[in-house]
Amino acid sequence: MIQIVDRQEQLLYEPAMPIFHIHIINQHSDCPDPEGHDLIDLEVARRVAIAGVREFLAHEIVKKGMLDLRGRVNIEDDEGVILASFPFDDAINVVGRAAV
C-alpha cells in the first residue's frame, strides 16, 4: 500500500541537513556565501568547496591570465564558526613548468 505524506508533516520528522557557508577569499576578489548550502556533512562541504575553488581559479585564468594561489577557503556553519579552512593550492595539482 502506498502512503501519501503531507510534505509539511514530513518535515517535522526528518532532521534538517546542516547549512555550510563556503567563502572563497583572495587578494583580488572575494566570493562570500551568505545563503549557504544544505549538505550532508563537512566532507561533502569540502568537496563542494574544492570544486568551487577550481571554478574560481579557472575564471581568474580566463579573465586575467593569472593564477593566484594565495587565497583560501573557509567553510563555516550557520553560526559563523569556521569548521574547515584550506589554501587554494590544496584544491589543485600543479604538474611541471615550462622551461624559462
From TrEMBL:
Q: What is this protein called?
A: DUF6894 domain-containing protein
- DUF6894 domain sequence ranges: 20-88
According to the lineage, what is the superkingdom? Bacteria
Q: Which organism is it from?
A: Sphingomonas glacialis
Q: What is the lineage of its organism?
A: Bacteria, Pseudomonadati, Pseudomonadota, Alphaproteobacteria, Sphingomonadales
One matching Pfam family, short form? DUF6894
